[in-house]
Fold these 4 entries.
Entry 1:
Amino acid sequence: MRVVLPAILPGVFTLLRMNFIAAWMAVLVAEMVGLRDGLGAIIMMGRNLFNSDLIMLAWSSSGYRASSLTACSSSSATGWCGGGSEP
């Protein structure tokens, strides 16, 4: 257990990072369909007003936050291997 867990940990964090981003996009789609508040509603308002800047700001800010959160946890958990799952 002492050898296997450190060897697979960077790959696990890469997998978590990709799945977390996909799950976050599913949450945004659900907000677009069913809620009046939230980031999905802001994206839909930008779509209805033909405001592509608002749409890009909402998508990029949510993607950046999700990516930086998982990258930070990965680098703190696997600091011994040079930054975790970053290429």
Note: The mean pLDDT is 76.
Entry 2:
Amino acid sequence: MRNLAIRFGIRAIDRFWHKSHNLARGQNMATIYQRLGRKIRELRKLKGLSQEELTEAAGLDLTTVSEVESGKRNPSLKTVYKISLALKTSLSELFSF
């Protein structure tokens, strides 16, 4: 990434990132949080887990899981990792939206 930044400049990398992640300029990070939350909820329901069961398995509190699923919270990587372990899925699966 550093070589690309040197060769093409930060603005070009930013444009590339937005295009490759299907984000238009002006969209904020809340959109990503909402998409991640929907994916987590979808996987949780596919596995037949309630929010309470997910929170217990992940070692998180119910408020955290509820806010992550609703896109109201910016979860840390550690939190997302705990959720992925509890759902028995990879991080890449959680971010495939």
Note: The two ends are 23 Å apart (CA to CA).
Entry 3:
Amino acid sequence: MCLAKAAIIQDGEEKIVMEGIAHMTVNNGKLLLSTIFGQQEQIEALVQQIDFVHHVIILKRNAIKHDELVKLKNKGGGSSEV
């Protein structure tokens, strides 16, 4: 079977988050990874790269969440538009 694995970049190194991924859904900045056996993992990250040959999804943690950015802008008296 050609299932994927997901790795996240952490401290400059790839760390495997999940293996045997059959399905990935993106919803509001969160990824829902699912295996064919129903195991699920939700992670807040961005897809940095997908390597179809080696079946690897490379993820990168969000540097800052959208809501936190709005709060920071509002604190500084700037516009809340992001």
Note: The first strand starts at residue 4 and ends at 10.
Entry 4:
Amino acid sequence: MIIVKKMGTRKSTKPYSKTPDLEDASHKPVTIRDMAHLLDCSPTTISLVLNNHPLAKRIAAATKQRIHAAVKETGYVPIPTPSLLRKNDTHIIGIMCPDITDPFCNQVVQGSCST
């Protein structure tokens, strides 16, 4: 005997979307993908415009204005960590000291922090 169970229907007033709704996600920072969905363009286009890349001259002036207006409206701030990791330029130094109370280790750490 095979039992068939009827699956319930999705009870939502909004259509399904993989992209988060910017109005409902006020606690999350706006990402470049959210901006792309909002503006109906690619994240690459937004990145080129915001970074003043030489290829941005191929993008229409109206699109550039829309991007800059949306950045001001949403408060989008690029996260620098991914680009720094791609460039291998994090400006982070790791120091391992066996004993931080040792005067030599203390001077090394203080000297590295001062520059």
Note: The longest helix spans residues 61-74.
